[in-house]
Structure formats: C-alpha cells, structure tokens
Amino acid sequence: MMDNSTVINIGLMGLGTVGGGVAAALSGNADAIKRKTGRTVRLRKALVRDAGKVRNPAPPAGALTTNPEDILADPDIHIVVEMMGGDSPAGEYLERALAAGKHVVTANKEVMSRRGPSLLALAQSQRVNLLFEASAGGGIPIVGCLMSQLLANDIRSIRSIINGTTNYILTRMARHQTPFADALAEAQAQGYAEADPTNDIEGIDAAYKLSVLGSLAFHRPIPHHAIYTEGISRLGPEDFRYAAELGYAIKSLAIAVAEANGSVQARVHPALVPEDHLLAKVDGVYNAVEVTGDLCGQIILHGQGAGRDATTSAVMGDILNILRSMGNADGPPPLPLPDGGGGNSEARIWPIDELASAYYMRLTCADQAGVLAQIARILGDGNISIATVIQKDTDPGSGTAQLVITTYPAREADVQTALAAVAELGVVASVNNLIRIEG
Ligand SMILES: NC(=O)c1ccc[n+]([C@@H]2O[C@H](COP(=O)([O-])OP(=O)(O)OC[C@H]3O[C@@H](n4cnc5c(N)ncnc54)[C@H](OP(=O)(O)O)[C@@H]3O)[C@@H](O)[C@H]2O)c1
Predict the structure, then answer these.
(1) Is the pTM of this model over 0.85?
(2) Could you give the domains of the chain?
(3) Known catalytic residue: 281?
(4) H or E stretch including 250?
(5) Which residue in the list 102, 209, 251, 281 is annotated as catalytic?
(6) Number of the ligand 1 atom closest to the C-alpha atom of 17
(7) Does the pLDDT of residue 267 top 70, yes or no?
C-alpha cells in the first residue's frame, strides 16, 4: 500500500488551454493540495505536439516531452491527466495508461462518448480510477452529481444547454437581432468559436456531452451517433422576435428522456423554451443542466461550461479525489456506470419521427385571403391542431407575408409530412423554419 509520504507523480497529456491551467494549479496550489489530501504531487512529464512553443507557465525543467512513452512506460507516474482532445491517439493512450495500472483523469468528451464503457470496464478490472468531470459541462459538477449525489434517483430526464458557443450566438441573435452569420463571426472574433465551427453549430459537440451525461443518468450506453442532432444555422433574427411575442426564448437544447418502455429520447436541436423557465435565462457562454429525478425533483446546475479556470476546477477536483482515495486497500468503489460491469446493453434511442411535440413553424406566404384555410386543411388532415397564428412583416413589393403558426403536440412524422405538402401549395413561397417547443 502507498504510504502518505509518497510523492505522487503526474503525467499531463496536453498543455494547451486546459492543460496549462492544470499545470499552473498543480504547482501554484501544491500546499493546498497537500493540506486537503495529505499528498505531495509533482508534475513529472507533460506531453505536447510542439516542444518549441512558449508555455505560460513554463513547465518544470525536463518535464516537456513529445514522446508519449515518457508517460505511458514510466512506472513512477501514478496519475495520467489527458487534455489533448480528439478520439485518437488520446483513446489509445488512455487504454495503455489504465492497462498499466495508472489512474486516469480526462477532459475528453469524444473519447468518453466513443469509448467510455470499455475504458470504464478496464479501469474497474485494473482497480484504478477513471474520472472525467470536465468532459461534459466544463466547470459545472454534473458528472460527479450523476455518479454519486443523485445516484439514489431514478433519473427521468436531462434538459441542458451544454454548448457555450451556440448559446453565445443565439444570445446575440436574440438580443441584437443579429443574423446568424454575423453572430458566428462575432463568436469567432471573441475566441468563443473555432475557425471551423461545425462541431459546435451542428450540435455534434453537444451530442458527445449528452451521450456522456445520458449514459450516466440511465446506466446504459447512449451512443453519440444515435442522438438526433440539428444545428442552429437555419434560425433567423425574426424567429427570435416572433418567439418572444409568443412568450418564448430560443435555445439549443440537449435532451435525454427515459421513456416508460425502457427506450430513451436523445436529441440536440433548437427549441422554443417558455421565457419563465430557468433554461430560457441562461445567456452567453454559460451552460446549464436540468436533471429531473424521482426523489430530487428538478435540479438545475448553472455555470461556466468551458474556459481555462472553470475546466481546471473540474480536472483538479478529479485529481484531488484520486489523491484522497489512493492507498485505500479496497481500491476505488465500483462505478455506477454504463456497462460498469453490469453488462447493460445500449439503450434503444427513439427515432425523431416518433417524437410528440408542439411546434413553431414560420412560412413565407402570398399575402391574400384564403391562404391560412388551405394550410389549416392540410395540417388538420395530418392530425395537427393549430394553437396560434400570427401574420407578420407583410412585404408589399413581393406580395408576401410571414405566417407563424404554433401547434398543439403532434407526431413529428405527421408534422414533417404535412409541411412537405404545405410547401407544395402555390400560395406558399417557402417553409422557413420548424422548431420544436419544449415544456
Ligand atoms: N477549452 C475548454 O474550455 C474545454 C472545456 C472542457 C473540456 N475541454 C476538453 O479538454 C481537452 C483539451 O482542450 P483544450 O482547449 O485545452 O485544447 P488545446 O488548447 O488545443 O490543447 C491541446 C493540447 O494537447 C496537445 N496535443 C494535441 N494533440 C496531441 C498529440 N497527438 N500528441 C501530443 N500532444 C498533443 C497540444 O500540444 P501543443 O501545445 O504542442 O499544440 C496542446 O498542448 C479537449 O478534450 C476538450 O474537449 C476543453
């Protein structure tokens, strides 16, 4: 058994935004770490791609390496902290670290989404920890909550805003009536969006995180590729204006709902959220996760979903938890996790066609009598009941107007079929948007 005087050597994989924050915290907070855990930590190696880059803070002399073997093959490194990102080679490095009996902390949503169940099973069989608080929700401690504090609950649903980039863009569009392309350019100029923003604006990043959170909540793997994703690029400033008139904000939500028959809804898409709901008030780069459980009721965690300091908080929390559990002869407790030894198979994910939801639709139509009657007939034939209709922004030049319709809950497949028929009407110039209404 490891005694308390042993220095715990840490190998960092990645020394960028998050890795730099963790390196600074390991050296700057060494006394506090010793006080809180009884352990002395040392940054022994830090893996990077480019050893010539200027680092702030500078890593300890001799720590920087471009050779992963300096960490993976070093028996004196006890904890590997992966902050490189991407599935490969990070995933293979984590497998090797666990197989070598090292504890692992990762901030990597893609690896945990794609390989979480097998990595967790490996960690369990090796009797080491694999912790991943920063992989979903950045500085919001939602992973630990689902794994421990909320474990007694039967979790019914997760509704979340877990991509700060899209939330920043949507907030700009709502507040300043900024077109999507301009809001995206602003997000890039502010450093909130990457040069290639596809993963964020198409919902892929949120799907990885939802896969991690949903798997923890429902104790079954929720593969990210089965999650329905829809991006935000179709939204126009007018959608935010009309939604506000109807009493809603527009947010990109990542939603997982456990259905009574054991299947799971898992989807990422823009949604109208009632403006008095807490999720409607989450603005800018902030994130929030609402969890509903049978015992806890509804809980909302709100905070910074990204950024160096907030993410360092999550990674360091995992490291300190490992330091506190080290030396325990029983090893870490069994993980209450997707396939965490229980052999749970993947959840059946509903196809989006089976969803029942209320909808907002915006059409550009001829500004003439009888148009609404034609549309209403098609919707009625498809079992879709209209809740509200507003006509807006008449354009005398083109002789068109914007027609905004909300519906009562209807089947997604019926709505899609009906809208396709509506689009064929001679009086309909275009179907501009269809947005689900949540709550
Ligand atoms: N940034 C955030 O706010 C945030 C929040 C939550 C979670 N995360 C997650 O944290 C992880 C890291 O994100 P980040 O923003 O810190 O990324 P980053 O700034 O791009 O840093 C990545 C680091 O990994 C190194 N690296 C990448 N690929 C490598 C390879 N094949 N071999 C060796 N070194 C390699 C890079 O080396 P060089 O420095 O030499 O290029 C760099 O130091 C990702 O999984 C991300 O999803 C980030």
Answers:
(1) yes
(2) 7-141+309-325 (3.40.50.720), 143-304 (3.30.360.10), 354-437 (3.30.70.260)
(3) no
(4) strand 248-258
(5) 209
(6) 16
(7) yes
